[in-house]
Design brief:
Chain lengths: 286, 322
């Protein structure tokens, strides 16, 4: 047997196999991966089944050892598990452990052994409390991140929808305005045609009831008149919460460019001109 | 903690059946549900063993050491395994010169350990694990891959330190003799002895050893099952059982099996094993081959052009004058 012959040759202590083996045949350009080349050349590897089984008998625990000492379960793996598919592999391990645990628990339960940890049993755990705290923190932060991402997504969608709705509303408003103007024109024409002899028909037949009554225009700023260029911010009497400190820090806000208006006050306002005549003269010279 | 045993004879709980019993077989213990039968294993035992065999006591002690210049990740793996096995003793680092042969055997005798897990790290990159049974037992050398320690925050489970694990194997361990040997050694090393001082009474974690693609994969899970009592699972609770991974994780690639401890005749060589050095050398050679290939291709192209010259181009002179 080849195995025995080898055994005699290697009777001395084996050195740890570290240096490159000589039975690797790698042809330079034709091989794409050396691992495939390895599978066949080392088929003459040693395999001394007899000796292995003998030694196994030597070291094994006696056959009639109570299961409680070993606590081992065997589980059939089923089909071949693909090593590279991480999910399938981990699933295979998980099902093996789960199945094994179920069997073991059934056995333990039938043996009436106390095997489940009560909730008030405090003892040293294999991971410290500080470590578990870190794990918890990480899980919570992940959850928070996912939730924020979802909220942002939802906000984006809502904004899109809101934009569409706003566009619709604007269109509707424009249409209404046009309609109203058209109807006034029509009424005027009618009056002209009728020669103003229709009697006291001041009010145009605008069919108020059809339009759900007179809708209050939904202005965004109820206190602001349309001609007010400052947007209602010019006269702001009462200060809000620490308004003064904020003004001091960030400057007075809100007076919308009133400095650039061409009003009666500003035409006669020559504060910004300092020695204006001399400046113009200077410019003309240069 | 486990309640103090009132029986002063054999420590094993089911040893009541193993006890030499000359009288008629004792009445099975009476429970709420009537008489229960003792485990069939225990019934067979007194018939076979008679009064000669002392009850089995697992007196396994594992020595865990590593070589010098071990990387941090592997050191943490070693510490994790140490915390999983309460019957393990840690020893100081072993010099690489000493790690061959006799020094480690002496260490084992000195510490009176029956097995050893020796982590050998080479070039701070490759980790080899030796599983050795002490007095003249077989030794197996593995290459360790895919190491994840318990420190990783993705492994969220936790269990009692020192509780006895349930060990599950996949059935392909029984297919070949060398796998059977591996299985036996794993069982003896990783199973916590029943009445060890540091062993805790409950079973709340499970090891999973499986063979996939010629490698042994190890996983450690925490068992979480809804229960109100400590010796019975809730009704339907077995279906609601979940496993949470505790860690660590590693993958073992068997290299050789030797007849003696840390040496001896080689009984098994893994034909598919390639040492990491060879893999690295191959990769380097492939990368180096790129330039050589380019140069060769250029030369080939030149030869080809010289051999098959093109016909003179009619339109080459067309724009010459301008």
């Amino acid at each position: 047997m080849v195995g025995l012959a080898r055994e005699e040759a290697l009777a001395h202590d084996e050195v740890i196999m570290d240096d490159a083996d000589s039975d690797v045949e790698v042809s330079d350009s034709e091989d794409d991966s050396g691992e495939e080349a390895q599978a066949t050349p080392s088929e003459n590897a040693i395999y001394n089944k007899v000796a292995i089984l003998e030694k196994l008998e030597d070291i094994a625990w006696p056959k009639n050892v109570d299961w409680m000492h070993k606590l081992t379960i065997e589980h059939d793996q089923g089909g071949k598990v693909d090593v590279n598919d991480d999910l399938a592999r981990e699933l295979a391990f998980y099902t093996q452990a789960l199945d094994g645990t179920r069997q073991a628990f059934e056995k333990l339960q039938s043996m009436k052994v106390r095997f489940l940890r009560p909730t008030d049993y405090y003892a040293e755990m294999v991971k410290t409390d500080a470590h578990m705290h870190k794990i918890k923190g990480r899980l919570l932060s992940e959850k928070r991140r996912i939730e924020e991402a979802e909220e942002r997504k939802k906000a984006r969608e809502a904004k899109k929808i809101a934009k569409e709705v706003q566009a619709e509303k604007n269109k509707q408003r424009a249409k209404d305005k046009k309609e109203q103007i058209e109807s006034v024109k029509k009424w005027r024409k009618q009056r002209q045609q009728g020669g103003f002899a229709k009697g006291n028909d001041d009010v145009p037949d605008l069919n108020f009831e059809g339009e759900e009554g007179f809708k209050q225009s939904k202005k965004k700023r109820p206190g602001v008149s349309p001609g007010d260029r400052s947007g209602g911010l010019a006269k702001r009497g009462k200060e809000g919460k620490n308004r003064r400190s904020r003004d001091a820090k960030f400057g007075h806000g809100g007076r919308k460019g009133l400095k650039k208006q061409n009003t009666a006050e500003t035409t006669n306002d020559f504060r910004s001109y300092k020695g204006g005549e001399s400046q113009t003269k200077k410019r003309k010279r240069s | 903690m486990a309640k103090k045993r009132k029986r002063t004879d054999a420590p094993a709980e089911a040893a009541g059946a193993d006890k030499p019993d000359d009288s008629a077989p004792e009445r099975p213990p009476r429970t709420l549900f009537g008489f229960t039968e003792p485990a069939p294993d225990a019934e067979a035992a007194p018939a076979e063993a008679g009064s000669a065999v002392a009850p089995f006591r697992n007196k396994e002690k594992v020595l865990i050491t590593c070589s010098r210049r071990i990387a941090y990740r592997y050191r943490h793996l070693m510490q994790d395994i140490l915390s999983l096995l309460p019957h393990a003793k840690k020893d100081s680092k072993v010099e690489s010169k000493q790690s061959k042969g006799s020094a480690l055997n002496e260490l084992l005798e000195l510490r009176s350990c029956s097995s050893c897990l020796f982590f050998e790290c080479r070039k701070q990159k490759d980790l080899y694990l030796w599983m050795v049974k002490s007095p003249g037992g077989p030794s197996i050398k593995f290459l360790v891959n895919a190491v994840h320690t318990m420190e990783e925050l993705k492994l969220t489970g936790n269990h009692l330190k020192g509780s006895r694990p349930l060990i599950t194997f996949s059935t392909n361990f029984d297919e070949q003799p060398h796998w059977k040997l591996v299985k036996e050694m794993i069982t003896q090393i990783f199973a916590t002895p029943k009445d060890h001082r540091k062993a805790k009474p409950f079973h709340d974690h499970v090891f999973a050893f499986s063979i996939v693609d010629g490698h042994v994969w190890f996983r450690n899970y925490q068992i979480s099952v809804p229960h109100n009592e400590i010796d019975k699972v809730d009704k339907g609770g077995l279906d609601k059982m979940t496993l949470i991974e505790v860690g660590p994780r590693f993958c073992l690639n068997p290299i050789k099996i030797f007849g003696g401890s840390f040496g001896g005749p080689t009984w098994y060589e893994n034909p598919y094993y390639i040492s990491p050095n060879q893999i690295r050398a191959l990769e380097k050679r492939q990368k180096a081959g790129k330039y050589a290939k380019k140069v060769k291709a250029k030369v080939r192209r030149k030869m080809h052009e010289m051999e098959n010259t093109l016909e003179p181009d009619e339109f080459a002179e067309l724009w010459k004058g301008e």
